[in-house]
Amino acid sequence: MCASCHQVGPAARAGFGPQLNGIVGRPAGSTADYHYSAAMQNAGFVWTEEKLRAFVKDPDAVVPGNKMRFFGIRSERELNDLLAYLRSIS
After folding, report:
1. How crowded is the C-beta side of 81, counted as CA atoms within 13 Å?
2. Is the dihedral of CA 44, 84, 87, 69 positive or negative?
């Protein structure tokens, strides 16, 4: 589901969404090769696991006005698996 918009790995680049390499610990809206919404550019936080968990559950609740069109993941198991994967590519 994420791969339709986001890339990871050595050759990752922005596409429909920003690349996700090193997202844990990265300031929101900060990759140079993606045009973020004003809401994400001005979010004013660093992506922690807790912030990512909340965002993936409900993107509009965490950053109102963001461009990500995603209805969220509600399954705790899927969220845990996703965060473990994101940690592994950081």
Report:
1. 7
2. negative
The SS3 call for residue 46 is strand
Give how many domains the chain has, as a whole number.
Answer: 1
**Contact at 8 Å (CB) between 23 and 52?**
yes
Could you read off the pLDDT of 56-76 as tens digits, one per residue?
A: 999 999 999 999 888 788 899
- Residue 81 belongs to domain with CATH number: 1.10.760.10
- How far apart, in Å, are the Cα atoms of 25 and each of 34, 52, 86, 89? 18, 10, 11, 12
**Residue 90: band (very low, low, confident or very high) from pLDDT cuts 50, 70, 90:** low
